[in-house]
Automatic annotation (TrEMBL):
The keyword Cell membrane does not apply. It comes from the Bacteria. The gene is pyrR. Residues 78-89 have a biased composition (Basic and acidic residues). Residues 78-100 are annotated as: Disordered. This is Bifunctional protein PyrR. It is an enzyme of class 2 (transferase). It holds the Pfam family Pribosyltran. GO terms for molecular function: uracil phosphoribosyltransferase activity. Its EC number is 2.4.2.9. Belongs to the purine/pyrimidine phosphoribosyltransferase family. PyrR subfamily. Regulates the transcription of the pyrimidine nucleotide (pyr) operon in response to exogenous pyrimidines. Gene3D superfamilies: 3.40.50.2020.
Amino acid sequence: MTVEPTLPEPVRAVLDERDIARAVRRMAHELLERNHGPQDLVLLGIPRRGLPLAHRLADALRAIEGIEVPVAAIDPRHRRDDLAADPSDRSVGGPAGTGAFLEPQVRVDGRVVVLVDDVLHTGRTVRAAMDTVSAVGRPRAIRLAVLADRGHRELPIRADHVGKNLPSATDERVQVRLAEHDGRDAVEILRPHPRENA
């Protein structure tokens, strides 16, 4: 009798709804501690899932300190060096054709800007977001908060606040699911399907 080897599951759940809520609360406390309070903080969420995470961080900061922290979306796609430009896309956004886009417009000059994203991987999106922030103003500091850091950096970028470090293989994907977009909260590692001839 031949026993077939057991293949790993294609999806491995890493964080559930409670874990994500706990990670967001912890990152909010870390932000307050590092900044010595909520003054001058601005949260810029990188769409798609970084924006709802930024709103959740703002909610946690309000629950802790009772103060509203501004939240806006930042779109760094025009500054990515690894994405082919779409010649039909004529939108530039931002002041005076800078290629920067903040919605709603928020003042970043002299403030502590916290970029918020779901997964930190190569660092290219974050670099593009930092360039976008610099195009619209001169913040006092730029910090980075991510729900999951999976490693495999291509640029020397490090998150200041991390919900969960998730070492993963280069052929795996880290998928963040948020109720605002996906109907549920979860962080999963997706493994590639084994090849037929492997």
